[in-house]
Amino acid sequence: MFSGIVEATATVRAVREEGGNRHFTLECPFAHELKIDQSVSHNGVCLTVVEIEEGSYTVTAIKETLLKSNLGALRPGDAVNLERSMRPDALLDGHIVQGHVDQTAVCTAREEADGSWYYTFEYEPQGDNVTVEKGSVAVNGVSLTVVNSRSGSFQVAIIPYTFENTNFRDIVPGTVVNLEFDIIGKYIARLIKNYLPSSGGE
Q1: Cα gap 187→191, rounded to integer Å
Q2: What is the DSSP track for 165-190?
Q3: 127: Cβ contacts below 8 Å, ≥ 6 apart
Q4: What is the largest CA-CA distance in the chain?
Q5: Taking the alpha carbons of 169, 35, 76, 105 in that order, is the dihedral positive or negative?
Q6: Whether residue 202 has pLDDT greater than 60
Q7: Mean pLDDT estimate for the chain
């Protein structure tokens, strides 16, 4: 489990295909602290460390992950948001993030506003994937508060620290990002569908 608070950005150093899988080798400041089999969030996707070298490590993404996230578009030189699993005794500074991306979205606008930035994202509504005003959403693994929630779109406000220390600095109109919707909201939406009579019922 994660909190959506990015620890650092990694730089993709190599991408290697093996069957339907793809191996990513990344360089990051805490690579020397990692262990084999450790879970790390990459742009919001939980992946397992399979190899460690000096200053870098390797993770593997299966075909399903590549199809449902933006990891399939990663190339050497790209920046990736990283977060290690949350410790049980740690403060939950963001919100509960599972590291299971629900779907992707496309940035349609980036506007600067007195040193901060507003990003607009559009996505194809699927299942229980919805946003609510002032609710939480993880974008590329970053825990954010939703503003201007609409069906199939929403905005987030990015402060200078987040802009400078995550790959939000690279997000421009047309960029594809990973979304993980609030797990509590998804459970509530599913319960309502299962236990409340439909609007057309008696």
Answers
A1: 6
A2: HSGGGG--TT-EEEEEE-HHHHHHHH
A3: none
A4: 66
A5: negative
A6: no
A7: 92
